[in-house]
Specification:
Elements lengths: L3 E5 L4 H12 L3 E8 L6 H13 L3 E6 L35 H16 L3 E3 L15 H14 L1 H4 L5 E3 L7 H10 L24 H13 L9
Parallel strand pairs: 1-2, 1-4, 2-3, 4-5
Helix pairs in contact: 1-2, 1-6, 6-7
Length: about 220
C-alpha cells in the first residue's frame, strides 16, 4: 500500500517535478494549492492541470490572502523587478513574507488529518531568487517544528519534509522532469504575465526558467525556445 504525502502544488515546473519525483517513489499524492492573492493567479489554473496529470488522490485549493499584509510585489501593485542581476544574497521584492512557513503549516495540518507523515515542497537553493525560506536550514528547522507542534508529533510520529530539488540546478530539474515524462507545457512560471497570460520573459522566474531549459538543451513548450 502506497504511503500518503501532501504536496504543495503551485503550477510551476518546480512543484510539478517535486511531486512527480514523490509519485515515482511510490507516494500517493494529496495536492494543496494556495490562492494567496498572487498577481500571477494563472498559476492556480496551471496547478489544476498539473494535478490532473499527476492523478492525485485529492486536490484542495484554499484561500489564504497574504495580500492583506502586502510587503511583496507579488501581492501588491508594486512593480515586479525585471532584468535584474541575479544575486542570491539580495532578497528581491518578490519575496512574500513567511510564505513557505505558512504554506508548510497548512500542509502539515492536512497531513495530520490524513495521518500522512510526508510533505513535499519544490523549493530550490541553487538556481533561485534568494528567498530565505527556500534554504536547507529552513526546511530542517520546520521538520523539527512539526514534531513539536502536532498531536501526532508529540505522540512519537515523525514528519518528513521532502525537498528533492533543493540541491539541483534548474537544468537538472528539467532533465529529471523530462526523464519522468512530464508535460511542462502545463506549467506557468511568470511573476508578471500580461492580461492574456503570456509570460513577460524578464522577471526572475522567467529568466531562471529560460536559462534552465537552455542549459538542459530542451525546448520550453511554453515559450517555444
Amino acid at each position: 500500500m502506497a504511503s500518503d504525502a501532501v504536496v504543495l502544488l503551485s503550477g510551476g515546473l518546480d512543484s510539478y517535478t517535486a511531486a512527480a519525483i514523490a509519485r515515482s517513489e511510490g507516494f500517493r499524492l494529496f495536492a494543496l494549492t494556495i490562492r494567496y492573492g498572487q498577481r500571477h493567479a494563472q498559476e492556480v489554473t496551471a496547478a489544476r492541470a498539473v494535478a490532473r496529470w499527476l492523478d492525485v488522490a485529492a486536490h484542495k485549493e484554499i484561500d489564504v490572502p497574504l495580500s492583506a499584509f502586502g510587503g511583496s510585489s507579488l501581492t501588491s501593485d508594486a512593480p515586479v523587478p525585471k532584468d535584474r542581476p541575479m544575486d542570491p544574497d539580495v532578497i528581491p521584492s518578490t519575496y512574500v513574507p513567511a510564505r513557505n512557513t505558512v504554506f508548510l503549516s497548512l500542509a502539515l495540518a492536512w497531513a495530520e488529518v490524513l495521518h500522512a507523515r510526508d510533505i513535499v515542497i519544490g523549493v530550490n537553493a541553487l538556481d533561485y531568487s534568494g528567498y530565505p525560506d527556500c534554504r536547507p536550514e529552513f526546511i530542517a528547522a520546520f521538520e523539527h517544528l512539526a514534531t513539536l507542534a502536532t498531536a501526532e508529533g508529540v505522540q512519537g510520529a515523525r514528519f518528513r519534509i521532502h525537498a528533492p530539488l533543493q540541491t539541483m540546478t534548474k537544468a537538472d530539474i528539467i532533465r529529471k522532469g523530462v526523464e519522468l515524462g512530464l508535460d511542462y507545457g502545463l506549467t506557468h512560471s511568470c511573476y508578471d504575465p500580461d492580461p492574456s497570460g503570456r509570460a513577460c520573459g524578464r522577471c526572475d522566474s522567467c529568466v531562471l526558467r529560460a536559462n534552465g531549459f537552455a542549459a538542459a538543451g530542451v525546448a520550453d513548450p511554453v515559450s517555444g525556445r
